[in-house]
Amino acid sequence: MAPNDKESESQGPVKAQEQPKQKKRSKKRPNPISLVWKLVWPKKLFAPGEAGEGSYQIAAMFVLCLGRVWIMNRMSALVGLLDRNMMTRGQAEFWKLWRYSLVMAAIASVHRQTYKYFESSLGLLWQKKLTKMLHQKYFSNSNYYAVAQGGAIGGQVNIKDPDERIVSDVKDVADQMSLVFCEGLYTATAGGFFAFKLGRLYGIRYALAPY
User: Fold this and answer.
1) Exposed/middle/buried for 23, CB within 10 Å: 0-12, 13-18, 19+?
2) 0.85 exceeded by the pTM?
């Protein structure tokens, strides 16, 4: 064996040992709260284009929730007046209250349909934004190949119909998110108003008792 070969054999393991080990990079998982906030809240309120998408819908829902509180307050007062009229037997007052009930029923019906329209509009807007966010993840770094092959061979990512999931599941999630958001906004406005009203009538302890 030649001396050069011996030197190369002796230096081979040394070079292999000198190679630094590559550290595995740990992937940071995104914060779910920040993702939901990014999805729900506009980048800039009432800005033109995509930056302000959803601003007018959220503002309209806030106004509609205040209108719903007003309708409930007027209807509760109307029930009290009808109960009093049942005891007094005033016919003229009864027909006056009856006409007022028809007007309030028409206002409540129009308000309800407008409320459902803006709730659906928010759901469609968030479905569009969520689909765009998922597409950015789905088509980056060849993730769609990994998802498709994993579902085909039964790997860790066992999703056999990713395209259908993006369509159907995203719609369900967006619809439920708009429902929860609108009901939560109404609960905040109505709860605050009626708690204040009960506090004025019966005191702070009675107002805070349900909570």
Assistant:
1) exposed
2) no
Q: Which residue has the tokens 């709860």?
A: 191
| Cβ count near 171 (within 10 Å) | 16
Q: Report d(CA 183, CA 179) in Å as an integer.
A: 6
Q: Could you list the pLDDT tens digit for every one of the 211 residues in the chain? A: 455 554 444 445 544 444 455 555 555 676 778 878 888 888 888 888 778 888 999 999 999 999 999 999 999 899 999 999 988 888 899 999 999 999 999 999 999 999 999 999 999 999 888 888 877 777 777 666 666 666 555 556 666 676 777 777 888 889 999 999 999 999 999 988 888 888 888 777 776 776 5
Please enumerate in sequence order all residues whose Cβ is within 8 A of that of 207, keeping only pairs 6 or more positions apart, or say none: 195, 196, 198, 199
Q: For residue 152, count CB atoms less than 10 angstroms from its CB and return exposed for 0-12, middle for 13-18, buried for 19 or more.
A: exposed
Alpha helices in the chain (DSSP H): 3-18, 32-40, 55-88, 91-138, 143-153, 162-202, 204-208
- Phi/psi of residue 112, nearest 5 degrees: -65, -45
Quickly tell me which residue has 């999630």 as its tokens. Answer: 173
For 182, counting Cβ atoms within 10 Å of its Cβ (0-12 exposed, 13-18 middle, 19+ buried), the class is buried
**Whether 40 contacts 126, CB under 8 Å:** yes
